[in-house]
Structures are given as C-alpha cells and as structure tokens.
Amino acid sequence: MVGSSVGPVGKRERSLLAEGVGLHEAARDVLTDHARALEAVRAALAPIHAELVGKELESIPVSRLKDVTEGRLRLGALETAGFASVRAVYEAGRYELRRLPGVGAQTADRALAAARQLARAVEETVSVRMDVDRPEPRTTALVIALRTLVEAGPELRRAVDAATRLDERLGALLPAARPAGGRLGMALAGRERRRSALDAVAELRELTADAGARDVRLLLAQASTDLLRTPASEIEAWVDFELRSAEYYSQLAEVCEHRSDVPAAEGFLPSEVAERVHAQALDDTRRRVSLRGYQDFGARFALAQRRVVLGDEMGLGKTVQAIAVLAHLAADGHSHFLVVCPASVLINWTREIGARSTLRALPVHGAERLDAYEEWREHGGVAITTYDMLHRLPAPDGEGEGAKPGMVVVDEAHYVKNPDTRRSRAVAAWTGHCERVLFLTGTPMENRVEEFRSLVRYLQPALLPAIRHTTAAAGPHAFRKSVAPAYLRRNQRDVLTELPALVEVDEWEEFSAADREAYLKAVEDGNFMAMRRAAYTDAEKSAKLGRLRELVAEAAENGLKVVVFSYFRDVLALVRQALGEGVFGPVSGAVPAARRQRLVDDFTAAPGHAVLLCQIEAAGIGLNLQAASVVVLCEPQVKPTMEHQAVARAHRMGQVRPVQVHRLLATDSVDQRLLHILKNKTRLFDAYARRSDTAEQSPDAVDISDSDLARRIVEEEQIRLAAAVGPGQGGAREP
C-alpha cells in the first residue's frame, strides 16, 4: 500500500530534494565566503587596532591603575622598577611582574587585571582611520580586504540574511524530508517518520517556490561571485576608497561591531521611545546604499513615530535617511511620495533619489510642472517640488489614493516656521492629509523654542503643552527628552568618531534666467573663464549664491567656521557682498603674505562662527585653515590638484571635527563638462602621481593643459548649444 501511494510521488520528491540540496549548498557557500571575507578584514584590522590601543595605554600613567582598584593597589614597586604607563604593565604579563622586587602575587594580579580593564575600555573607543594621502602597508591591506565587501554592495547583506535563513530551515527540513525521495525509504520508515517526511516535503516545496519567485538563487550566486573576485591592486583599492570612503568605514564599523556613544547616537531618547524605534523594521530592498548605525536608527525613528522632525547637525546625511524611509515605504506597497524643498536643492534631491534608491524621481518645477504633477498622480514616484511651487499644485482632497502621498518630506523645514505665510499654509494643507510626515532641518531647535513649537503644530499638536522655554533652559539633552516623540537630533562629534574627517557633497543648481543669458553669451564668445563664472551674473537670483547663503546660515546655527574658495576675485567680491558683515578676507594674490596670515589668524581667533574668503591659488598652499570645518568651492577647478591642496588646508593634522566640502555646480554647463572630462582621465595614474612629493610641490606635473581643456569644453558647449561661433575660440583669460 505504501509503495503504490508513493511510487509516482517519489520521482517528484527526488527532484524537489535535489533542488533543496542545491539551494542549501548555495546558501552555505555564501556564508562560508562571507565569513572568509570578514576574517580577512579582522586579520588586517587587528595589528592596526592593537597599535592604537597600545598608544592610548602608553599615554595613561601607571597611577591610574590605583583609581581602577579604588586605591587598593600599591604601585611603589612598579614605579621603582620603571613601569611608567599602563601599557608597560599590560604587556608585561603576570610572570614578569611577579619577578619584580617587592611585587607579590596579589599585587601582580591586581595590577594586571586593572590594566586589562583599562585596555578593554580603550578598545571600545579607539577609531581606525585610513589616510589616503599617507598609505602604509597595514592600512593598505585593510582597504583591500574591505573592498571585497564594499564591491558586493547592499545586495550582500540581503544575500547573507537569505542564506542564514535558508541554512537554518533547510538544515532541518532536508534530513526530515529525505525518506520521501524514494520508495524504499518510505517503506522502511515508520508511520511517524513518513508523516514527518511528507510534512517536510510540503514545507520544502513552499520554501523553494518562494525562493524561485524572489530569485534567491541568483542573489546567492551573485554574492558568491562578488566575494570570490580577485583582490584589487593597492592603487585600485585606494582610488576606490577615495571615491566612496564612507562605504568603507560603514563596512569597517559593521565588521568590528563598533558602537559609538549609544545614547548620543540615539539622540538621548527615553528608553520607551528608543525601544519602539529598535522594534521598527527597515526594508532595504528598494535602497542602493548602506546606512551608518545612527542613520539606520534615524530612518527607523521616522517610521516608528510617523510625524517627526529629524534635526541632525549638517553633514550627517539627513537626505540619505529620508530616502531610506521612502524606500522602506515603497517596498511596503506605497507608490506616491512628495518632497518639498528650497529651489537650491531640488536638483540634489533628484540626483540623490536616483543614485541611492530604485525610486522614480519627478521634479515638479518650472514651466512643465503641471504635466509632471499629472504624471506623478497617475504613475507614482517621488514628486520633488519647491516651497514657492507647492501652493500652485492641487492639494490632496482624499478623493483618490494617488493624490495622497505615503509620506511628505519637508527639507529645510525652518522655512515654514511662520504659519501665516503662503508656503506654510501650503505645507499645512499637504501634511494635514498624510499619515507620515518628515521635517528635516539642521538648525538646533533647542535654541529656537518658538520655531520648534510652530513645526510641532504641523506634526503632533498634542505635544505643544510640554514644549516650554524652561525645558530648553535645562539644556539640550533635557529638551530632546521632553520632545522625544517628535524630535531627533545628533551631533557630529557624537556619531562620526569612526568616520573619515572628510565629507564631500556636490551641490547642483540651475542657472537663473540672467545667469543663463550670460552663459550663452560667454559660450558664443568662446570665453572659457566667463563661462566658469556665469552662475554669479545676477547676485539677487544666482542659485549658487542662494545655496551658499543657506550653507553659511546653517553653519552659523551650528557654530562652525566656513572657508569659501574661488578662482575669481570678482566672484569673491560678490560673495562678500551677499554675505554682509562679519566676513574675513579675501585672501588673494593681491594681498601681501604677512597680511594673508593675519587674516587667517583673525579668522581662527574669532569666537564661534566666521567666514573666510580665499582665492584658491593664493590660499591653497602654505596656509593653515584647520579652524574651518566647512569648505565651499564656488566652482570646480581646472587643476584637480589645486582643489585637493585647498581642501587640505582645512582637512589636515590637528583638525578635530569632520570637514564638509560643498562644491557649487551648475547643471548643463561648463561645470558638468569639466567634471566629466577630469573624471575620465586615467584615475590610476592620477592616484599614483598625486600622492608623490613632486605632485604636491608642482600641480602642473600631473594636470592636463589648461588651454587644451578650455578649448575642448568651449567647442563641446558650442556644439551642444548649436552656437554659431566656430571652434578654437576657447582661450583662457585672466581672472
């Protein structure tokens, strides 16, 4: 009876079992390959980390051991024997300590236990930094090992998670289902075993069908392929690190399970809010970028609390966190989202969404805004519009699901602090119809309680009675705890301890009408230098100047010093006029060297926020600008080494804060052509030459000819814009 019931079924089951075994082997291969890649990183990291710990312990006097033991340790004999630091005790070992005159077994054990306790504390705090300008064998080995994980990308985490689940389930299912693979196996199995086998087969069939529907085999195969690639050469690894260092540090933190100050990284939220955030899932299937730990927490916070202000200090990636939230909601079935932002960052939002997620970004701006809006209503995606444009769009009325976004993101939310303005009323109309709203602002709200009350009124009005000036007066931590359901803010110094001290952001802007007219005239004339500064033709409407004002204002709110570089003296004069009083400089070629240094000294000595204007050729070499933690480049430079050296004036030894570099760029312009050409030069040669002593002393040694580059860009722009002027008119003129 058993034979007749399983005969035809056994063949199907054998095929199913074979499929399950193949899937199990693929999962185990991924886990093995991933474990090997992790071990390579840990092996490369260990000596670097040990040296850092040793240096820290060397700086701690041996007397600190008495503090650890609450005064119970006698150190006289150790000090007499020449043990001056905790490191000396930590590395000595019990046998060596006990051989010292006057040091008994108890003293030796206590001293060693205290030294180990301090070492464990130091191990949790030291941070490894990889210096791209001073590579050495051990950090090179670490960069090469990390590149394997970085190259695999965000898909690797999904593959490892899928492999882990499959290994666990198939490890139990396959042995249980094995008797069903043949007539004899089922015949010899007892009744309970046969029932278990058939149940396991049913579950196996469901599991393999689900894996097939989600292309899990392809995911696993790609992960193994990525993990088994031939290691990169030293130059390739360092070039890649320079291009995406944040991803390398993110992988490093994940591998070594580095934990920054958890309360600070979580914005000092009360435990009940933090627990709710930790319980919130975060789907990354529609995301193309890895998140830092604090960014992951910020995205979960926005999801768990639904209507909130994310107020992280500038430079911490608020945009990336918002995109992670939108990607999660898209994976959960939502189709329509809205981003409202100043016009100066609309292009950046469009580019970031396309680069960091699979979501479709639709700028709803300009003459074709209504067509774009209807396209969004019908097909979904992320509509990106400006404050000035929002009131012209039909607000959702609840009649159709397509009209109601799954989330509204409001960037630079302090723009709507006055509820009586037109832009504020438009934001209120949209946010009032949406369950999820995310306000972004780098302004510390604890300094502006009335503004914060205005923002909370859009989000969670029930919190208003708890928000008082007396709460803010008690300090930022007390303020954040009192408004925790609706506000999360982290500072750079709390969460960027293991990140590189350089964060680079390209700020893409569109020409104003006057700037575009000036640009077209410069292209027609073949005037390369006029093309480069055309974005500053109209001081009142220049998008670049508008964005620069915003960056400086946000830096002022956070007490950060700013240095602004331009190749052109007239651009710096315009910047000075736009920023008003309290600006130092410009440091230019017309200023004597002694006067330049006095300007820098005065800028450095100024308390809190200050701005220094510098002509890039005059200030890019020799001056120490490490007081600045925000660098703004008004235009891309023809010589990459010139920009590199200018940034290095701020990002150098002794800089205690991460340095943010903002490049102001105009779309469809000389800026875009220049970056494209320079990017497509032979990067490996640049990476090698740029780090040589010769390159540091003579930028011309590795840069291509100014006149050749200018001529090429002018010709390309004339062709692109269908200008009537012929090629060869692109001579570079003096600034």
TrEMBL record:
GO MF term (any one): helicase activity
Domain Helicase ATP-binding: 299-462
One family name in Pfam for this protein: Helicase_C
Helicase C-terminal domain sequence ranges: 547-710
Annotated keywords: ATP-binding, Helicase, Hydrolase, Nucleotide-binding
Parts forming coiled coils: none
Matching PROSITE patterns: HELICASE_ATP_BIND_1, HELICASE_CTER
Name of the molecule in the record: Helicase SNF2
